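User: Predict structure, ligand adenosine-5'-triphosphate.
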Amino acid sequence: MDVIASLCKRRGFIFQSSEIYGGLNGFWDYGPLGTQLKRNIREAWWMDVVQRRDDVVGLDASIIMHPKVWEASGHVGGFADPMVDCKVCKKRYKADNFCEEQGQELIRTATGFALPPGLQCTSCGSKDLTEPRSFNLMFKTFVGPVEDGSSVAYLRPETAQGIFAQFSNVLDTSRQKVPFGIAQIGKAFRNEINPRNYTFRSREFEQMELEFFIKPGTDAEWHAYWVNERMKWYASIGLPSSSLHQDVHPKEKLAHYASACVDVQYDFPFGRQELEGIAARGNYDLSRHQEFSGKTLDYFNQETNERFVPHVVEPSAGVDRIALAILCNAYREEWIAKGKDEGAAGQVIEAELGKPAPEGYEARTVMRFHPRVAPIKVAVFPLLKNKPELVAKGREIFESLRSVWPCFWDVAGAIGRRYRRQDEAGTPYCVTVDFQTLQDDTVTVRERDSMKQERVAVKELDHLMWQRLR
Ligand code: ATP
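Assistant: Predicted complex:
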């Protein structure tokens, strides 16, 4: 993870938030490449979950909502993690992780939680620990100038409740019929006790959530349908099925209103962890909002004359976790035979981390992003920066390509060095404009993973990129 985090900083994928002030634990900023990577993840999700479907529409709800939303959802009363404090060094832990790390399990009691014996602070070694106490994960703020109990509001800990609260308005205006879905992408905030594993558990993060409303009784089939759709989507952004897993929650671990839940997990360098949860939540959320708001949130089927509160299947994914999985999956260090980048035959060996390349080879770091999510799709290089004809021709090609794709223009240094920079950024194709271009209007297109080069007519470039980059 350290190697990947260092590349992320060096190449401008991810920075610590407020770094010049020493950072703020649990908060991260995305640099130029990371921003583009996240945009691509969001767009790929929106494309497949909303744009390409007849039965899903979008929503962009506010981050701060009426506090009653969070009473109805159960977050004010129940969105809490048990935590343990070391009384000596004051370090605070999430109780379940704290026990797990010491090979034990947190004990559930009738009134809450208890610690098994023998645990010690992993920071100072003390055994003087508090009992597990509940800690609400919602960030509180005040709306308006008066800071008292009546003006308390919360930053949303999930985007889903905005969807439930607007169910009727969307239904009335979108001409959708059950089954149909409402999708939303946006920031969520949780005051996590122990932010860790780089960006994996942050205090500010982004969710992509779909609430798919269905007829009661069809829960199992729609749940299976969405698990399958979501697995296909992960394959479409280049996460291999060998690194993905489905964690099916046993019935006894489900929330009382849920009939099924499957977590999609990825094998991170720090272990197998959740990217997305797909839950069949019955009609719990809409019923609770009916109860707390006094408004009817049901659906009338005109064909069958039936009235019901729809059930819901909820695939809920985290943009940041998916970005991290993509970064981990893409990272490779290789030793390549010298000259291979200039088109010579020669081997590529997977590098041994931390060792120098053997005689006759050079090292390259390459981010093998799927073209769908690669931050930059094409880089354009004029062979020499002091030849105005090459620069002008290159610029013309670059302007044409970048009206469609995120592109990068680089005139500095030897071509090999420019390739190496794009390999680290994960750019699938590099286009080089040379003297032959001026004669026959062809360019060299170099593919990132195989490093193969081909000569392509400039007028074919757009078509080639359309074929290969989607
Ligand atoms: P965990 O058990 O890891 O805390 P969760 O089960 O509480 O996650 P959900 O409430 O199901 O998570 O949220 C849906 C998705 O939102 C998660 O699958 C994850 O991708 C993302 N997510 C939740 N909490 C965080 C966080 N603290 N940082 C980054 N992403 C998060």
